[in-house]
Amino acid sequence: MGDFCRRYLKDFRMNKIALYFKKVISPPRFVYIKRFAIKSELNVLDVGCGSNSSELSRLWLKIKQYDGIDKEHWNGDSDSYTGIDNLFNIDLEFTGLLEIEDDFYDVIILSHVIEHISNGLDIISILTKKMKPGGIIYIETPSCRTINFPSAVGFLNFYDDKTHKKTYFDSEIIPILQMNACIVRFFGYRRSLIRMLLISPIAILLNLFYFIPFKKTLCSWGLWDLLGVSRVWIGQKR
What is the pLDDT of residue 157? Predict the structure, then answer.
């Protein structure tokens, strides 16, 4: 029980630190979304919401309606789901998303979801039908290069997370968007210069002087943008 409590408290502290930086420095997904979103007030569907996503989304975007999809409360934390206008409890591997309105959303966020399911391409295809013309879908998932990365607390190697099922390639995502009346507005590794300049140096020092010598492991926090852990695709509906 003591070991469990220590692990929980360590994870809790890291989550609090991560949340603090997300409130001070915009998470990269919102930078990309604001670059391509047409409307100033947005109807947003966040697929795989939770972890204070509503709070952060409303902080960084002008939102008219924020809806979310999640299989269950992540880590059992129902408090992190406050502020969601409509929460759909859906298992994406067993749904056609018929309860979600078509042609309604200005922004659909699909961040670190499809690697956990085997039918990610089908879900992307269905979600494009939920977008208004001019709406955008933001897709983020671990890049294939993470297969060769070292293991770390919080995930650097793709298989650090036992729930990861599948990596996705540009050659899969881009055709699905194009076949569903979307223009591909961006694809590439997720990068945030400000996070690389302000957060990555702190992460490197934490690893060099704490995690590596004392914990005999790496911590992934703050290294994603530096190493290109995530791959991003953005489609805009014609």
Answer: 98
